[in-house]
Amino acid sequence: MGLMAWFNKSIVDPLYQILSRGLEPKQLALSTALGITLGIFPICGVTVLLCGVAIALLRSLCHAPTVMLANFIATPLELSLVVPFLRFGEVMSGGPHFPLTSDALKKVFTGQASREVIISVAHALLGWLVAAPFILAALYIIFLPCFKVLVHKFNTVPLSPKKSPNSLAEVKLKVRDV
């Protein structure tokens, strides 16, 4: 029961609050895709900083709580994708294959990183950099229809009304008539 209570408190409740605020599905899809894409960055502990920078740069184009929630949800993915990003980066650069042994991991954790370990980290970063735009685009395409349905279902605030060309003409006439 403790795991379900934690899951509801940490993921389901914040997601419901986000969906019920009347945000646009496009903004939610972009924010979620961005949070997951940055959340799988192959260096642990950096993703929150990356998300903060992205939120500051994109401002109103993204929704900060959604980006951070998606980043939090992506944490298990981050750890599972380090090796695929490493291998992809090795292929992209034509670099040597880095053997993943307990000795290499020990050197990383004790701060005795050799040149090979540093190159492998660079390969993982290269793999993520090349894959990230495709991951972001694919996630956005997947999440957009999902959020259209979810926002319609859980939204308690009406979405912003679409302005028709006629309403803009009426505003211009009213301004001219004054």
TrEMBL record:
Q: Which residues form the DUF2062 domain?
A: 15-152
Specify the superkingdom: Eukaryota
Asked if the record carries the keyword Lipoprotein, the reply is: no
Coiled-coil boundaries: none
Keyword field contains rRNA processing: no
Q: Which parts pass through the membrane? A: 33-57, 69-88, 117-143
Q: Which UniProt keywords apply?
A: Membrane, Transmembrane, Transmembrane helix
Q: Which InterPro entries match?
A: DUF2062
Stored PANTHER family: E3 UBIQUITIN-PROTEIN LIGASE (PTHR35102)
| Name of the protein in question | DUF2062 domain-containing protein
